[in-house]
Q: What sequence folds into this?
């Protein structure tokens, strides 16, 4: 392990959680996005986290939610087809919101690790100073 | 990492600092992976092997390693306990600061013995 591994590991976690938060923000912004039934529904992004070999965490990939979505009857919608149906994204608002809390807490935990790292490195720099 | 011309006390302190440093890396890794599916938390126990090495008279001969924990896993196969990890991070940081102070005290002792002002 290198000299500043603490910061590298915490940084990798901040990056992964940021990607996750960005994806959740996009999903939540589009939770009411409707499309024509002839088109694919809005596809939510699901970030896949993976532990890195030397410590830390990274984004292994982003899975997309079902393009079929949910067909909902909404005849007043200007995008509705002849039967009055539109296509809504297959996203669960409750799940997205709880993931938002998880991602935020994970991010905060790693911010705390960077603070601990600062204390430790500052302390190590005092070795031999008297 | 053995220090040049170090005595048993300095070597012990140095090994302990290495152990704490690895422990902090491992805690950071556990916290980074708090939401990673299937992740197993690891921990570092260098105290018992350091104590054994001191008994054998060579505190520098300690192999530091992280071992996976066997605590029960949650719904996504992850067993990181965030509360435990943050407490351990704090404790390790304080221990590290205490040890750097001990190293400095030891050094000033040697400096005094060497006749430096």
A:
């Amino acid at each position: 392990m290198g000299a500043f591994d603490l910061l590298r590991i915490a940084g990798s976690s901040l990056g992964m959680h940021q990607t996750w938060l960005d994806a959740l923000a996009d999903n939540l912004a589009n939770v009411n996005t409707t499309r024509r039934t002839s088109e694919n529904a809005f596809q939510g992004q699901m970030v896949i986290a993976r532990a890195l070999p030397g410590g830390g965490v990274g984004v292994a990939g982003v899975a997309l939610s079902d393009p079929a979505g949910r067909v909902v009857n909404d005849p007043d919608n200007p995008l509705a087809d002849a039967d009055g149906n539109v296509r809504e994204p297959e996203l669960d608002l409750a799940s997205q919101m709880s993931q938002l809390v998880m991602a935020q807490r994970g991010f905060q935990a790693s911010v705390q690790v960077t603070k601990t790292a600062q204390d430790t490195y500052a302390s190590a720099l005092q070795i031999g100073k008297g | 990492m053995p220090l040049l011309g170090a005595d048993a006390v300095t070597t012990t302190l140095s090994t302990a600092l290495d152990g704490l440093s690895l422990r902090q890396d491992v805690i950071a890794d556990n916290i980074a992976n708090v939401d990673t599916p299937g992740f197993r938390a690891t921990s570092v126990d260098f105290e018992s092997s350091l104590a054994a090495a001191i008994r054998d008279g060579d505190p520098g001969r300690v192999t530091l390693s992280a071992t996976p924990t066997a605590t029960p896993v949650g719904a996504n196969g992850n067993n990181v306990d965030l509360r435990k990890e943050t407490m351990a991070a704090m404790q390790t940081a304080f221990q590290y600061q205490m040890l750097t102070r001990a190293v400095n005290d030891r050094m000033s002792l040697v400096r005094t013995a060497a006749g430096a002002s």
About this structure: Chain A has a mean pLDDT of 93.
